[in-house]
Structures
1.
Amino acid sequence: MKLYAAHLHAIAEALQNIFREGAYADREIARVLKADKRRGSNDRAFIAEHTYAIVRYYRLYAHLAGVEPQSKADWWRLIGIHLLLNDYQLPDWREFQGLDREELQSALEAARQDRALRESIPDWLDALGASELGEEWEATIAALNEQAPVVLRVNRLKADAVTVIESLGREGIVVEPLADDALLVTERKNLFRTKAFRQGLFEVQDYSSQQAAPALEVEPGQLVVDACAGAGGKSLHLAALMENKGRLLSLDIHGWKLEELKRRARRNGVANLETRPITSTKVIKRLTAKADRVLLDVPCSGLGVLRRNPDAKWKLSPESVDRVVEEQRQILADYSRMVKPGGKLVYATCSILPRENGEQLAAFLSSPAGEGWELEEERSLLPQRDGYDGFFISRLSRTR
Ligand SMILES: C[S@@+](CC[C@H](N)C(=O)[O-])C[C@H]1O[C@@H](n2cnc3c(N)ncnc32)[C@H](O)[C@@H]1O
């Protein structure tokens, strides 16, 4: 593809804001793309794809460039390195002067000897991953640097797989059945503009994430609480599994996320969902021993979804991981009380660290709060083994 200076300017601006102004990569890319409405879908895809790739390989590229980028010229240098390593022919522009493909290749070979550099992650994260996952870490972090597959979940309140496949097919988008209600998108296209999406026939949701709601074994007519609902990816799935019958309470500490969930619920034809922001501990206390089912899709490090959110590598710290582990402990201890005896709870994370997953659960079960609970099932999903996001899903039942 021909290189356009305007695209590279947009990428440099996004990178500066992500790395120096603390912007989130997804929001910043959306902002940059919105700023110039004349761009076509190929231009937009180019900017998004290459910005993400440079965020992902930031440490490696900065090492090869020999700079900690601060200025526009520095970011252009990183962009040039990225393009050269991805077989682009660099135009004869002043910004790219001094960049040489062969020199770069030999510097890359040397850098590859060091895993943290090769995989472009901070040293502390490499040490943490190795100590937490042992031999599995090397393949896990390599898989987390690959581009994520795009998976859809058919909204069974409105459609079946065949309807979605045919509707998207009419708009030139090919999807293949994957398993259950999951469809794999074989070519990247803007799915959100399709008729099928606007009609609420599907949601974009990774296949690992699609396994959380079914694990809760909900039944139509139950009282189900999704206690960390966010914008509701899993609430929408729960409502479909409940066939719109019973009560689904979606809670979160951030009311604005629940507003987004309400919009999505309308599009999905969900009729049994109520949102409730957690404004005080009373919201949880009032539900003590009331729920048949509780989903705890807790805040986590997000290390299982680095493919989608590569900037998390640069935003996390050992301290922030410790903090989130403590939040999870608290949520598990307090929110599990909402389950009534005989009811069930799913504890899930999009992390690959045993500290946030199996160890967190084991600590709960051996604590006073875990008395009267039994572990029914636990599964760790790894990108290199299972093919999708890193995820942890466990189900507990309350015996008394
Ligand atoms: C992993 S995200 C949830 C994603 C969501 N379930 C989905 O499927 O789209 C975790 C959510 O927990 C929320 N959260 C953080 N601390 C919380 C707390 N103490 N109580 C309830 N929710 C909390 C965050 O705002 C965030 O939306």
Note: The longest strand covers residues 339-349.
2.
Amino acid sequence: MRSTGLIEAPLATVGAALRHTRTAETGLAGLGVRARRLTSADSLLVPGDELAFRIAGLTLTTRVVRADVDGLSSVLVSGPLSRLQHDTVLAQVGPRTLLTDSVRWTSPLGPLGRIGDVALGRRLVLGVQAARIRAVRALAEAWADREVVVGTAIVRGGRLLAQQRSYPASHAGQWELPGGRVEPGEDEDEAVVRECREELGVEVRPTGRLGTDVPLDNGMLLRVHTGELTGPEEPAAVEHREVRWVNAAELPALDWLETDRVLLHSLRALLS
Ligand SMILES: Nc1nc2c([nH]c(=O)n2[C@H]2C[C@H](O)[C@@H](COP(=O)(O)OP(=O)(O)OP(=O)(O)O)O2)c(=O)[nH]1
């Protein structure tokens, strides 16, 4: 079953809304479907997260297998179906984002199950898809006007540059990506170049984007760009406690800011 929706927000912002736990939980409440996250407590879903859905007295559990800027996929872990595959694919269409949601499932009951599919399953799935698209649209369109904080993923020789905060006390010692607020009159690439100069004393060329946006508690959106060093300077900790090049295996061991943890799978993919 396939449903589509056009959303007035950039791809990375729609990707974040799609990953937001609230989309799964409250988006479906109106249909009598109760959704509950079973694994991590982060606000954005990450691969490996499991969700339990209660529908008409039955429980169905799914696991997220992909959560990236181009969409979200999950598969059945347990429940009264023999197979379930849910894929949401996102594509940028000018300033908007096209969302295509497909659900494929196999009923375990043979011909009898197929009758049930037509009578109940299809109507329910269409309702669920419409509710999800409404929930994603509401969040993404509300977030689209937020101020942006750029983060920069600089990679060299299979290692990512991470920096350790020295302030405020609540975050001192935690790791983040170089970056900061986009200032008035500046675009995101310019902010990446300026922040890397100020924080690391290096020249960086922005090369693209990574992962979905991440909503911050301060009402802003964290948006990660990729970049490469173009000059001979070595990155130095100007305002930070330390800078470090980390490989894919070392990545999860650092004490990252909570917001950055939901991007680790995208950063790891960049290193491999
Ligand atoms: N630079 C950066 N900021 C991040 C990351 N993750 C994350 O939540 N943030 C947050 C921390 C801050 O609230 C905000 C970044 O703002 P900023 O770098 O201008 O730093 P700040 O608020 O401490 O302000 P300032 O005094 O340095 O100007 O975004 C990240 O990976 N890199």
Note: The chain has two domains: 2-143, 148-271.
3.
Amino acid sequence: MAKIYKDKDVDLSILSKKVVAVLGYGIQGRAWALNMRDSGVKIIIGVRPGKSFDLARQEGFEVYSVSEAVKRADIIAVLLPDMTQPSVWSAEIAPNLRRDMNVIFAHGFNIRFGLIKPPNDVDVVLIAPKAPGKAVRDEFVRGWGVPALVAVHQDFTGNALKTALAVAKANGFTRVGVIETTFAEETETDLIGEQNVLVGGLLQLLKYGFEVMVELGYQPEVAYFEAINEAKLIMDLIWERGLTGMLLGVSETARYGGLTVGPFVINEDVKRRMREAAERVRNGEFAREWVNENQRGALKLRELLKQVQNSQVERIGEELRMMMRSG
Ligand SMILES: NC(=O)C1=CN([C@@H]2O[C@H](COP(=O)(O)OP(=O)(O)OC[C@H]3O[C@@H](n4cnc5c(N)ncnc54)[C@H](O)[C@@H]3O)[C@@H](O)[C@H]2O)C=CC1
Ligand SMILES: CC(=O)[C@](C)(O)C(=O)O
Ligand SMILES: [Mg+2]
Ligand SMILES: [Mg+2]
């Protein structure tokens, strides 16, 4: 059984005289900063000038450049985009690090693939929420949290894990459960998970499910309700009650059809491809491809995003979501 930390195992007081700099005020950064401030931790923000900077100010934070925030902090949470971290690290973070500081990542990418090499005299830890930033904040406000992983890459002070767990607690993660892992396990499973299932696999499955019905001549609105909107509600059943609970919460007809046809559609070939994709993560091929793509200006990423934005399913979805929200 994995080692799991809960609120009762963690002492927040280790943060009481510390200043935590949240670097980046985006999807994760904003959620972490608001959560930790609500937990009574002294937070400052380090970010470049722009929308995030203005928003952080509006929301009442002291906001600085990344360099200045690192200078003023004891603990830094590096919540910048993965592909931006290496250059900001060498230009603004590394020159301002001091002995005994604690450096937190929310994803192990740059450490696992060797793109950032921290000095020996700081702690380097990982607190990886297993949730999108919106849930990190929404769940905290609800009085609960999301699960997260914690790992120690470097323990210079002897307090690396304790400090990381305190930051996790201040974010509400230990209300749910924080599992101890390694940078390698977090990085690889996170990438494999988002590619095969959460982002890649799911999107493609929903899109094909929608398209097959539309191509057969059914109304796109009906296809959207069936293949996409209801997918959320079925996922909620799985989330609350498990796979068996979901199966017992749908009709007997759906249960039989699903259990027999599912493995025909998502077959062993798909599983083989999932293994291939996982191998490309593990051997560093995906990381190299993404770094190169990014260095060329992420043109392919922008083009692929545009294709999704302009697809029929998105137009239908936007209308229906608006309709369902009002009234
Ligand atoms: N998005 C999510 O829900 C999750 C993200 N993570 C990890 O969290 C980290 C942050 O990711 P996101 O929150 O998605 O990033 P983001 O793209 O939402 O936010 C980036 C922030 O960094 C700032 N920024 C960008 N370039 C900068 C620069 N050169 N100098 C100073 N500030 C700069 C932006 O203004 C923005 O405030 C990544 O390591 C990611 O893998 C982990 C779990 C989930
Ligand atoms: C939201 C999350 O955990 C992801 C999918 O791994 C990410 O945004 O990188
Ligand atoms: Mg993730
Ligand atoms: Mg990820």
Note: The mean pLDDT is 97.
4.
Amino acid sequence: MRTSWADSVSNSAAEIAISDKNSLPRPTRSTYVPPHLRSGSISDVSGTVSGTNGGSRWTGSDGGGTKPELRHQGQGNSYATAGRDAAGGGGRNNRSGGWDRREREVNPFGNDDKIDDIKQNFSEQENSGINFDAYEDIPVEVSGENVPPPVNTFAEIDLGEILNQNIRRCKYVKPTPVQRHAIPIALAGKDLMACAQTGSGKTAAFCFPIISGIMREPYAQRTRVGRTVYPLGLILSPTRELSCQIHDEAKKFSYQTGVKVVVAYGGAPINQQLRELERGVDILVATPGRLVDLLERARVSLQAIRYLALDEADRMLDMGFEPQIRKIVEQMNMPNRGVRQTMLFSATFPREIQRLASDFLSNHIFLAVGRVGSSTDLIVQRVEFVLESDKRSHLMDLLHAQRENGNHGKVSLTLQQALTLVFVETKKGADSLEHWLCMNGFPSTTIHGDRTQQKILKRVVSAYPCPDSHRTWVSHTERELALRSFKSGKTPILVATDVAARGLDIPHVAHVVNFDLPNDIDDYVHRIGRTGRAGKTGLATAFFNESNLSLARALAELMQEANQEVPAWLTHYASRAPYGGNKNRRSGGRFGGCDFRREESIGKNLDYYSGGNSGNAYGGLVDIGGGYAPGVTSAWD
Ligand SMILES: Nc1ncnc2c1ncn2[C@@H]1O[C@H](COP(=O)(O)OP(=O)(O)OP(=O)(O)O)[C@@H](O)[C@H]1O
């Protein structure tokens, strides 16, 4: 039976004795529950909660409509507290109550997970291909009050042994710049607005502190009341692919920590997601639309949220998503800013969006890490003048050259690795180009966000060229399959709309083609950022013509800033073009990525430092009014 949101919230609020969303009561620490006792009912060992759920260690009823009988311990709230985990070290909460998750948890690392192998030092490990030299001189700006110093190694951060093991399993040798700065800030409980270049490891930068924080929280055995679950962490992202990717990453990071991560996204049947939620959730990764649905069905409550992260935050707060985000954050009983911890991450952060975002933040720290991909030559950017009518044949030429030469300058392409991502403006255009490519001997697939038709065309790669009989229509729920087919190299060309522009981390994308340029330079930054990730090189080619005039100036500036060759004709277009390409981002040719508070509050007591990443940049904090340290330029200014 569907219960109204308001009813459900008020009922459950009464039951779990969370009387004030801004003063979430914290239970006392419970006694340690030895692993051999964890298989039974929680009440057997802690006397905290009665009722089991088919073997789940989640508290609450079995979803049959009976309210769980929650007994309180200590401060009179409903949170059953978990014991400490000896293996976790450092007094961490292992979050194991009624059953030991570690026995049932699927190993997200597959077979590549021999503890003996991973017990080696970080320094002895295989570097996962990241080019750390490229990061050494990245300009960094930080502003805010009491900024914790950055770290140089994971060992310097107290994340706990289990999380450290997972970091080793991921083959992360040392933190990327955004991780060096953001993780200590987040662990200090500060709100954070972080801008860092595409492919620089932002996902881990917000996941590690959330997972670690939940493991540390003494109070937070997760609670389910009736069918409503109460996650502690919420990560919002704009697309289902990105949500799934964050979920996959977060599951790796949280492996064997007892912290349960669940994903919910639209365009897929809700029932399976509901079942998964009923099994328990500590961190919910979600797209806004589906989350609102779950909140309105009272299947999720945000009352217990301690950590809120918005990935691609500028996208989440632009006109498309802002109303939903406001609803989620401000009208759905989530603890207020200042009570919860809020972290916003993106590679781009227009000034207007920063201003808007400050509604969700409390006394936040602003962090900007220069964009590795575009400020170095890791992504080689080319722009070619191509008339609309010539685009297809030009693309064909590029693909033939790529196939024959097997390389693009610095970018070595093997057959399996030569993945090419082609961005187009419309869904129809994507389907049409994919069909044409396929008919011309280039196995392709497509991905776009058509929610009404909810179908994508997937071609069988062996059909070469693809006859109609080999074409397979797959349902929208299989959009991920198209992505998988691309990732695996079965269909090494993916024609996509902007739905694939942000966040997706696809190894071996060597070439991004902007068949149709976007209207906004920030979208261009995100699109080309699908290559040249984690220190690897990449190539980005853009087809420009008169219809892209409004982007000319922003594009020329961006390329220049990234030390790219700007064709004379583009400079010419730029000089006579009105300023466009993102009204919010720049004014007077300046990047708008720096802390907007600096401009609006000169003289406020904000710490501020800027400089490279070599360590000496932190020698002295300068007052915000002092601007940049002498001789230091920022990628954001
Ligand atoms: N410390 C690290 N060492 C090695 N690889 C890392 C490290 N941190 C992250 N990575 C890898 O770098 C890649 C990019 O990371 P991630 O997807 O988090 O980037 P991002 O900054 O969120 O990019 P985008 O702006 O496009 O969303 C991933 O494959 C990730 O596994």
Note: The longest strand covers residues 379-385.
